[in-house]
Design brief:
This protein is an alpha/beta fold. It contains 16 helices and 24 strands. The chain folds into 2 domains: 276 residues, 3-Layer(aba) Sandwich (Aldehyde Dehydrogenase, Chain A, domain 1), CATH 3.40.605.10; 193 residues, Aldehyde Dehydrogenase, Chain A, domain 2, CATH 3.40.309. The radius of gyration is 24 Å and the shape is globular. Bound molecules: nicotinamide-adenine-dinucleotide. The site of nicotinamide-adenine-dinucleotide (NAD) has 31 residues, from helix 7 and helix 8.
Length: 496
C-alpha cells in the first residue's frame, strides 16, 4: 500500500483484503514547512471501494474471531517489532507530512508502542471468560468480538490515534477498516501496512478520503462498531449516520482543557513553569489534551505571567522540524492556521493584549510554511471565544481568578470535559480536582506529560463517549455476553 516512489515522494494506495487497490484520482500531501513540496500522494477511495473494504472485513471476521488469543497476541507482537525496526523511517515521514519536530514524532511512536505492548500484555486476562458459581446456579460472562470496526482517526496524532484502535480491536477478535485523516494520511498508512503484513487478508483494511468515505463507514449495516477520534461537530454527523443501524461507538472528541494554578503554587519552580509551557505548546498546541486555558489565582497572577514568559522564551524555538534545536514546528494545515489566527485577532479586537513567545530560528522558513508564532493572550473576558472555544493551535489565554468556587465553576461550565490539571500543594490540588468534570485531571503537570496508557482515557459531556487505553480500552471492543444457567427454573411469582 505504500510505495517509495523516490527519495522524496511516497505514494499510498487503499489496502483492501490484503491487496493494494488502485484509485483513479490521487490527492497530494504537502509539507507544512514548505507547502510547495509534495511529500506524497494518497487516493480518493470511492464509495464502491469503501463497501469492498467493509465486505472484506466482514468476510475475514468469520475466521478471525475463531483465531486463538495467543496467536493474535503473537501476530501483534511481531508487528510491534517491525514498527520498532522501521521507527526512524516512520518518524521522518510523519514529521514531513505533519510538521511536528522529530523528537515529537518519536514521542508519538513511543506512546503508540507503549500502548500496543500494554494491550498485548493485558489482552488475555482482559478477555478471559469469567465463570461464577452462585446460589442461583452458574453464570458465564464472555467478552465476544463485536464485528467490523470502522476506525476513523484525526491528523494531530495520526499513528497513536490509529494504533490506539487497531491493537485492541484486533486482539479482541474484530476486523477493521481504518480511515486516516486526509491532513496526515501517509505515516498512518505506513504503520497500518506494517501491522497488516502480520495478519490474515481482510483483517485490516485501509481506505482514504474525508467525510464522503466517512459517511459510508459510519452508516454501512455491516459495520457494528465505530471508533472515532476527531472534532465534536463531526461526531454529531457520525451519530446521525450510525443511528439507522444503532452501532456501538467510542467517541474521543474535542476539549477545552483548563490548567488551574492555586494560591499554593510556587511560581519560582522553574521545572513546573517549563511543564506548563510544554503543556500549552507541544505539537504547536494541536493536541486534544493540551492545556487550552490557564487560570491563575490573583495573588500570584502577575508574577506567574512574568515567570511564564521567561520559561516560554527559553523553551519555544520555532523552526525546521528536522533541526534538533526546534521545539515547535508549523501548524499542520492552512485552515487550522487561519482559524487560530482568527481567534487571536478577535481577542485583540475585544481589547486583549497579545504577547509573542519564543524565538524564530529560521525567518525564511517561518514565512514560507504554515507557521504561527506562539502567543499568550492576557486581559480576556472569561467568555471570549479564545477562552471558551477549542483553539487547537499555539495560543493560550491566561486569566486570573479569585477563589476556588469561581474557578471550579469556570471549569465546569464548559461543554467539554476531556482533561484538566490543578497545580499547587498536592492535597489542595486533589481536593479541587475531585470537583472538576473531566475524564482525567492531572496534578502539577498536564497534557501528555501526565498521560498513563494503563488507565482509561476519554472525555465527559461533549468531549466524548466511552474510553480508550487501560483494560477498558480493550474491552470496549467486545460485547459482554452473559450465559445464565439457573438452578431454579420456575419463578415463584408466576402462577401455575
Ligand atoms: P475532524 O473531526 O475534522 O476529522 C477527524 C476524522 O473524521 C478525519 O479522518 C476526517 O476525515 C473524518 N471525517 C470528517 N467528516 C466525517 C464524517 N461526516 N463522517 C465520518 N468521518 C468524517 O477532526 P480533526 O480536525 O482531524 O482533529 C482535530 C479534532 O480532534 C479536535 O477537535 C481534537 O480535540 C480532536 N481530538 C480528540 C482526541 C481525543 O482523544 N479526545 C484526540 C485527538 C484529537
Amino acid at each position: 500500500m505504500t510505495i517509495q516512489a523516490d527519495q522524496e515522494t511516497i505514494i499510498v494506495e487503499a489496502f483492501i483484503n490484503g491487496q493494494n487497490v488502485k484509485s483513479l484520482s490521487q490527492v497530494t500531501k504537502e509539507n507544512p514547512t514548505n507547502p510547495t513540496e509534495i511529500v506524497g500522494y494518497f487516493p480518493v477511495t470511492t464509495k464502491e471501494q469503501a463497501v469492498e473494504a467493509i465486505e472484506a472485513a466482514a468476510g475475514a471476521f468469520k475466521t478471525w474471531k475463531q483465531t486463538p488469543i495467543d496467536e493474535r497476541i503473537m501476530m501483534m507482537r511481531k508487528a510491534i517489532e517491525k514498527i520498532r525496526a522501521a521507527e526512524n523511517e516512520i518518524v521522518h515521514l510523519l514529521s514531513r507530512e505533519h510538521g511536528k519536530p522529530l523528537y515529537d514524532a518519536h514521542g508519538e511512536i513511543y506512546v503508540s508502542l507503549m500502548w500496543m505492548e500494554f494491550a498485548c500484555n493485558e489482552a488475555k486476562s482482559a478477555l478471559q471468560e469469567e465463570i461464577k458459581e452462585h446460589e442461583n446456579g452458574k453464570t458465564i460472562l464472555s467478552y465476544d468480538p463485536i464485528g467490523v470496526v470502522a476506525a476513523i482517526s484525526p491528523w494531530n496524532y495520526p499513528i497513536a490515534l490509529s494504533t490506539i484502535k487497531i491493537a485492541p480491536a484486533l486482539l479482541a477478535g474484530n476486523t477493521i477498516v481504518l480511515k486516516p485523516s486526509p491532513y496526515a494520511p501517509l505515516a498512518a498508512a505506513k504503520v497500518a501496512e506494517i501491522i497488516a503484513s502480520e495478519f490474515p487478508a481482510g483483517v485490516i483494511n485501509v481506505v482514504h478520503g474525508d467525510a464522503d468515505v466517512g459517511v459510508e463507514l459510519t452508516s454501512n449495516p455491516l459495520v457494528t462498531k465505530i471508533a472515532f477520534t476527531g472534532g465534536t461537530a463531526t461526531a454529531k454527523h457520525i451519530i446521525k449516520a450510525a443511528s439507522e443501524t444503532i452501532k456501538d461507538m467510542t467517541l474521543e472528541l474535542g476539549g477545552n482543557d483548563a490548567a488551574i494554578f492555586l494560591e499554593s503554587f510556587d511560581v519560582h519552580d522553574e521545572r513546573a513553569m517549563r511543564r506548563i509551557v510544554i503543556s500549552n505548546f507541544l505539537t504547536a498546541g494541536q493536541i486534544c489534551m493540551i492545556a487550552k486555558r490557564v487560570y491563575v489565582h490573583r495573588s500570584i497572577y502577575d508574577e506567574f505571567v512574568e515567570k511564564y514568559i521567561e520559561a516560554a522564551n527559553r523553551w519555544i524555538r520555532i523552526g525546521d522540524p528536522f533541526d534538533s534545536n526546534t521545539t515547535v514546528g508549523p501548524v499542520n494545515n492552512l485552515k487550522q492556521k487561519n482559524y487560530v489566527l482568527g481567534l487571536v485577532e478577535d481577542a485583540q479586537k475585544r481589547g486583549a493584549k497579545v504577547i509573542h513567545l519564543g524565538q524564530i530560528l529560521d525567518q525564511k522558513l517561518f514565512e514560507q510554511g504554515y507557521y504561527l508564532q506562539p502567543t499568550l493572550v492576557l486581559g480576556c473576558d472569561v467568555h471570549d471565544p479564545i477562552v471558551v472555544e477549542e483553539q487547537f493551535g499555539p495560543t493560550v489565554p491566561i486569566l486570573p481568578f479569585d477563589d476556588e468556587e469561581q474557578v471550579i465553576h469556570l471549569h465546569n461550565e464548559s461543554i467539554y470535559g476531556l482533561t484538566s490539571s490543578v497545580w499547587g500543594k498536592e492535597e489542595d490540588a486533589i481536593s479541587v480536582a475531585r470537583q472538576l468534570e473531566a475524564g482525567t485531571t492531572m496534578i502539577n503537570t498536564a497534557a501528555v506529560q501526565g498521560l498513563d496508557v494503563r488507565f482509561p482515557f476519554g472525555g465527559v459531556k461533549q468531549s466524548g463517549i466511552g474510553r480508550e487505553y487501560g483494560v477498558e480500552g480493550i474491552r470496549t471492543y467486545t460485547e459482554k455476553h452473559v450465559i445464565n444457567v439457573p438452578k431454579t427454573l420456575d419463578l415463584p411469582y408466576i402462577p401455575e
